Amino acid sequence: MKFKLPETTKNWTSLVGATIALVALFIVIFLLFLTLAFDQGGSYLGLLIYILLPAILFAGLLMIPIGMLRKRKQLKDAGVQEFIEKPLPFIDLNNQRHRNAFGIFIVGTVIFLFISAFGSYEAFHYTESVSFCGETCHNVMKPEFVAYQNSPHARVKCAECHVGEGVDWYVRSKLSGLRQVYKVIIDDIPKPIATPIQHLRPARDICEKCHWPQKFYSRTIRTSRHYLRDEENSEWDIDLVMKVGARFDALGLDEGIHWHINPDVKIEYVSTDDKRQDIPWVKYTNLSTGKVEIFESQDDPLEEGELSSLEIRLVDCIDCHNRPAHNYNPPEFFINTAITAGDISIDLPEIKSIATEICSEVYSTTDSALLGIKSGIEEFYSENYPEVIEENNDVLQKAITSIQNQFQKNIFPEMKVRWDAYPINIGHIKSKGCFRCHNDNHISESGKVISRDCNLCHTINSQGPPDNMMTTSINESLVFVHPGDDVEQEDWEESLCSDCHEGNGP
Ligand code: HEC
Ligand code: HEC
Ligand code: HEC
Ligand code: HEC
Ligand code: HEC
Ligand code: HEC
User: Fold this and answer.
1) Same domain for 123 and 14
2) In total, how many domains does the chain have?
3) Cβ–ligand 1 contact at 276 (below 6 Å)
4) Is 231 domain-assigned?
5) Residue having the nearest C-alpha atom to atom 34 of ligand 6
6) Is 252 inside any structural domain?
7) In this structure, are 114 and 164 located in the same domain?
8) Any ligand 2 atom below 6 A from CB of 203
9) Average pLDDT over every residue of 350-363
10) pLDDT tens across 97-137, in order?
11) Could you tell which of 257, 281, 443, 445 is best to mutate to test the pocket of ligand 3, judged by most ligand atoms within 8 Å of the CB?
12) In Å, how far are 49, 59, 61, 63, 70 from 56, measured between CA atoms?
């Protein structure tokens, strides 16, 4: 008995469709076998197996009924009686051809559903994976991916912060992902990628999954080493107690830095620039007493009626923690790190100063930057300290390698990403940060001020050169002494730290 299929299946569209689908299926199975058997394959193979090939497979399958419908119409137009009598497709299980086709259809559907269930599960995991987000478009995402790997969140998946739980955000993120893939293909990604990210999921949804306010933190000690730009690279240490939480756990979020996210506290603000750096208006509502306080900038107030045209934003985690996973450090800080770690020798005269200066220059590519760093530093020493090259070249070369490594972790010329592309909202040195509101200049009608008191957020417990530290007991604070001899107390009292430190500043 010959195996026969309905007349309508005999057309080129269906045939080509079926062939495409079969070939695609075969390749998927083959590649899947390869990845499973050899545990190989990167993000590109994933893109092929879980997205491109299934799309082709599906398109092929779709061509089969399309071809059949068209053939049906042709047969009808040609006057074939059967199709004139029954213009719509029908299934007659008494007809052997129909039975065959129906059987193939049922078996095919079961296999197809099974594979797509498996496939969509894998596709879900794959498109949520760090390698898909971070590596597939590696040129574009390199800065975020590299900084992420050096962040405290290196083991938190990109999607856990950028998508979160729930079907609606999943779908939204895939739709916006499609648009982004298209933009990468037509090379229309802004450099650097603009932030704040519009339509980012509210951070409290996301962050509180792992860091919930009931379990907020006691005060922490924060220690740092700095090196000055003098010949000796003089060390200057600063130890702070950061008032992350209240002084006593029992006080919960009643005081301290995380008071802003106390469930009874609502702080809203408007900004007049697209990076949320200029904040002229802040509203504080105490949800338990209903008390409202509106603070307005005295130097830079809103104009009459301007408020209604601006978006009022509720303070959440990322109004302070806007770089939790992608922090691009400025050169003076990453050079400090490399010196502290012992990779750059402090015996190289002026190394802090020259390394910072060279890394602050603008380069067009990473390669030219790496070459520029090497030749710039070698030139500097051969001109100013030739004895270093003669006697201590090993140490100098080790320092150069370390500076190059640090540069590559923090600065990404191809995407125009470096510390000054993204203001950091925590702290107050390289950008205004907390001082956007806490600048003694936002005053409410009742005369309250959002304070810039140096002891509001932290106490300085010790500071100075390691052999001559000023210290005080815990919960007391020293008056800040600016590192080095050049900056007097009135200089930093009368201006914001970022006025000098912003951008290529020290
Ligand atoms: C701990 C949470 C977290 C994780 C994990 C995370 N991000 Fe982010 N990401 C953020 C936040 C917060 C921002 C800043 C949003 C803003 O300023 O509007 C951001 C910003 C970005 C930006 C905008 C450009 C920039 O540098 O600010 C990109 C692109 C990005 N992330 C990609 C990724 C990729 C890729 C991964 C995984 C390799 C990842 N993110 C992992 C929280 C996270
Ligand atoms: C999936 C869980 C998860 C999510 C979501 C998450 N984090 Fe974290 N976070 C962690 C882990 C794990 C650490 C590391 C803890 C440690 O080092 O002790 C961490 C550390 C931190 C730290 C301390 C950093 C340091 O220098 O020690 C901060 C601040 C932080 N997260 C903020 C955030 C913010 C803001 C968000 C939301 C945008 C967020 N996290 C989302 C798991 C998460
Ligand atoms: C959008 C404006 C805004 C920003 C940005 C902001 N704050 Fe505040 N902060 C306030 C307001 C308003 C108060 C309450 C002032 C008052 O009533 O005295 C406050 C109070 C505080 C308090 C005192 C809480 C208490 O009662 O114990 C601390 C500590 C604090 N902020 C730390 C910070 C830190 C650290 C940053 C930066 C990481 C920051 N703030 C950024 C608006 C802001
Ligand atoms: C007003 C600014 C502000 C807001 C809003 C804020 N934080 Fe923080 N957070 C800070 C500062 C400042 C620190 C201390 C940073 C440091 O020590 O360098 C901190 C520290 C942390 C730490 C580390 C604690 C530790 O013991 O090391 C975590 C985790 C954290 N925040 C999570 C969150 C989450 C989650 C939210 C939102 C629900 C949030 N923060 C909202 C300013 C803020
Ligand atoms: C509104 C809160 C707030 C106020 C007010 C404040 N600071 Fe800070 N300061 C911070 C935070 C938050 C950090 C930590 C930044 C970080 O995690 O990188 C910090 C860090 C510092 C550091 C450490 C720098 C380093 O890297 O070692 C110094 C020094 C400092 N502050 C001095 C001052 C002085 C001086 C004043 C008074 C003019 C002041 N602060 C007022 C919040 C504040
Ligand atoms: C008048 C300009 C000016 C102001 C204002 C200023 N600084 Fe500085 N700061 C400098 C200069 C210049 C250096 C470099 C000193 C050196 O390396 O010899 C420096 C260096 C530093 C360093 C060491 C940096 C490193 O390379 O490790 C810290 C920390 C610092 N300043 C903190 C602050 C803080 C905190 C404030 C605000 C309270 C502030 N500065 C305000 C000019 C200023």
Assistant:
1) yes
2) 4
3) no
4) yes
5) 497
6) yes
7) no
8) yes
9) 97
10) 888 888 888 898 898 888 778 777 877 787 788 887 777 77
11) 257
12) 11, 5, 9, 11, 21
